[in-house]
Design goal:
By secondary structure, the chain is an alpha+beta fold. The chain has nine helices and nine strands. The protein has a seven-stranded mixed beta sheet with strand order 1-9-8-7-2-5-6, sandwiched between helices. A hairpin with a 3-residue loop joins β7 (186-190) and β8 (194-198). The chain starts with a helix and ends with a helix.
Length: 265
């Protein structure tokens, strides 16, 4: 059986880092409160929470695109980690013709890479092939370990071989991504203490900064209720570990079954 070395360093599940505050310092919400999220509130609440993560980020999304986050929303510590490898990234981008972002914004995958460099464990479970823009960020950050097009390295995506962020980041040294063709849920869990459950994908029109008149109509809930957060994380882990692979009716179109990745680790 093929080996999957990156899996050994990430461990099977995402966990919190012990007791966390019962009151959200930014919103004043108690741990029992759940609020609706609509439109641009996805950026203000969900993405701001991801940018401020200290322990872990778990994302379930159908699509992965090159969504941009305004630099002003990214903490200085994260921007510092992103800029640490800027010279090398620029050199690679010029060579490949790929773009990471623009002056006043940065790609969300780069934000996640910055978090990983700071020791945050970041995992993305997605259903489809990432867009060309997203692939540009991923292939640059993976330092040539992946193909130049999304169709070149589907196996690499399934394996968790994508090292967005690289360096001395969190477990695995970067953002770890796995693909399940049945994955269509939209969930974001931050520090095992807060969760978004709704309709928005990891795209500019869903969670990003696209103008209100152009963005999708998305709705979900943001909660720091312990039972709901734990339930969301349990389901993320179940899919991540290949818990539904046995008997799955779509194995004929699955590049590498997640259970194979789990067992190989």
């Amino acid at each position: 059986m093929r080996g999957h070395p990156s899996i050994k360093t990430t461990g099977p599940t995402l966990r919190g880092a012990g007791p966390l505050p019962l009151i959200d310092p930014d919103t004043g919400m108690s741990s029992a409160e759940t609020v609706p999220v609509w439109g641009s509130e996805h950026l203000e609440r969900v993405i701001d929470a991801v940018c401020g993560a200290r322990v872990s980020v778990a994302v379930m999304t159908a699509d992965v695109k090159g969504m941009l986050v305004p630099v002003k929303r990214v903490p200085a510590r994260v921007m510092g980690a992103i800029r640490a490898g800027e010279a090398e990234r620029r050199k690679t981008v010029r060579k490949r013709g790929a773009g990471i972002g623009r002056g006043d914004a940065v790609a969300m995958l780069e934000v996640m890479g910055g978090l990983a460099r700071l020791g945050v464990e970041v995992r993305v479970l997605h259903g489809g092939v990432p867009s060309r823009a997203a692939w540009g960020v991923m292939s640059v950050s993976a330092k040539g370990e992946m193909g130049s097009r999304p169709t070149d390295s589907i196996r690499g995506l399934q394996d968790g071989a994508v090292g967005v962020g690289g360096g001395a980041g969190g477990a695995g040294g970067g953002v770890v991504m796995r693909r399940c063709v049945r994955q269509h849920a939209k969930v974001v869990v931050v520090d095992a203490a807060a969760a978004y459950i709704g309709s928005a994908n990891l795209t500019g029109a869903g969670l990003g900064a696209k103008a209100d008149r152009n963005r999708n109509f998305e709705m979900g809930v943001w909660t720091i209720d312990a039972a709901m957060v734990e339930s969301a994380l349990e389901r993320f882990n179940a899919v991540w570990e290949g818990g539904f692979c046995d008997g799955c009716g779509r194995r004929d179109v699955c590049p590498v079954p997640l259970e194979e990745v789990r067992l190989a680790g």
